[in-house]
Amino acid sequence: MCPVLVLALVVVAVTVGAAPYELPGTLTLPDGAGPFPAVVLVHGSGPNDRDETVGKTKLFADLAAGLADHGIASLRYDKRTYAYGDQLTNDLTLDDEVITDAVAAVHVLQARPEIARVIVVGHSLGGMLAPEIATRAGHVAAVAMLAAPARPPLVILRDQLRYLGAPRELRGQVEAALAVVELAALGDDPTLQVMGMPLSYWRDWEAHDGVATARALDVPLLVLQGDRDYQVTREDFGIWKRMLGRHAAYVLLAGDNHGFFRGRGRPSPHDYADEVHVDPRVVDRLVELVRRPDVARGVRSKGCVVRCS
Predict the structure, then answer these.
(1) Across the 309 residues of the chain, what is the mean pLDDT of every consecutive 10-residue run?
(2) How far apart are CA 133 and CA 154, in angstroms?
(3) How many domains does the chain have?
(4) Are 184 and 108 in contact (CB under 8 A)?
């Protein structure tokens, strides 16, 4: 697949958040005077850098370049768990890992004279939390949810490990954590960690009602999903469609995996071993949402799914 080509852009170093967790970020501006519409790119779970690098792929760098080519600015930044992971404690919450810094990133854009309006674009966990981020930040023009999980997090993790044929011991840890979460009266065990995160983190994730928050938003809302995604699956996509109904627009991209890189056959972590680039259809859909939110509202009013093959 060919890389995203950019005619001209301006890159500005910015800081997101406040001490003691100031995060380095990159503001990508199209060449010209502006003001420009802009997106905040919100990562999935785990210690992601500003490009959301996985293997040799860089989803957020690709999106920033592609959007700039269409006159749209973007802000991406290193996550707190990436920049300060060794300083975080066992009482980590979604506020600590994602929400607080994403809201701060929205405010960074809103304060700049080059920016006309702001759209929140979240990937994976960031997609699920994008409506909440928009609500907390205020004055957001639209929201895009890319490969957003809808099922309980430990259920998703268990299914991923089964799909990958993970060792029985690792799968047993997830099953034990699931049992504790389901028996809430047992309380949190501070010694129990799953995939490097304390049990309190997984409970906090499960407590967030993404559907209710999304339904309360009165802005264009886009749910985007790849049909080769084994991490967040078409089951999650179906839940969003069933629960949100006409409140959102839905696009299913044939051949795309969790990172929205096109491929064939059975998806696996090996999909990220080559230097491939984001599916241009993702950029096209985001451009449409930013430039013509009325189109997203029109699709939303019908509650239909657009399938792109």
Answers:
(1) 55 95 96 93 95 97 96 97 80 91 98 96 98 98 97 87 80 72 56 73 88 95 97 96 94 97 92 95 96 63 54
(2) 22
(3) 1
(4) no
Give the end-to-end CA distance of the chain in Å, rounded to a whole number: 16
Report phi then psi at 293, rounded to 5.
Answer: -60, -20
Q: Considering the domain boundaries, does residue 63 fall inside one?
A: yes
Q: Is residue 189 included in any domain, yes or no?
A: no
Q: Tell me how far apart the alpha carbons of residues 37 and 144 are, in angstroms, rounded to a whole number.
A: 14
Domain with residue 239: its CATH number is 3.40.50.1820
What is the pLDDT at residue 1? 42
Residues carrying an active site annotation:
124, 229, 258
Nearest alpha-carbon partner for 251 in 204, 207, 283: 283
Residue type, 69: D
Which residue range is the domain that position 111 belongs to? 9-152+211-308
In-domain check, residue 168: no
Tokens of 143: 């929201």
Is 173 part of a structural domain of the chain?
A: no
Determine the pLDDT at residue 300. Answer: 53
Nearest alpha carbon to residue 90 among 172, 188, 186: 188
What is the distance between the alpha carbons of residues 27 and 110, in angstroms, rounded to a whole number?
Answer: 12
Q: Of 231, 294, 226, 215, which is closest to residue 263 (Cα–Cα)?
A: 226
Instruction: Tell me the C-alpha to C-alpha distance, in Å, between residue 165 and each of 16, 196, 227, 266.
Output: 39, 19, 20, 14
